[in-house]
Each structure stands twice: as C-alpha cells, then as structure tokens.
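Residues pack. One example:


***
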Amino acid sequence: MEAKFLEVIKEALEIEDRDLAMGDKFKEFDEWDSLAQLTLIAELDDNFGVTIQSGDFKKIHTLQQLFEHIQNGQ
C-alpha cells in the first residue's frame, strides 16, 4: 500500500524527477500550493476512500503522518 500511496502523491503533485521518502515534509515541496492541496485530497479520497478534513490536514506535515492517517481511515 505504501508504494501505491507514494505513486498517488507523485501523480497528484506532478513530481516526475525524484523519489519520495516517507519522512518528506510534502508541504515544503516546490510543487506545493493550494491547488496541489485540493488535488491531493481528492486523489486520496478517490484511491483510498478516505476524506481528510481541513483541520486534520493542517496537523499533518510528513508523508508518513499522511499515510498513517489514511491507514487509520480517519
């Protein structure tokens, strides 16, 4: 599931030139902006069936935290 998760992140943020690590702070990526946030939230819902509320999303900083949130289905 982790590989699929990372692929969804790369696709949503249109990252083609590098690999991602679970410890990465995705909100610090050059590709990150408000449109990327909306796209990512929609892609995670489509691929994993998990809706992330705005308040919860603000507390998530790393890909690992986001992955754990999805695994917990919260």
User: Anything to note?
Assistant: The chain has a mean pLDDT of 95.
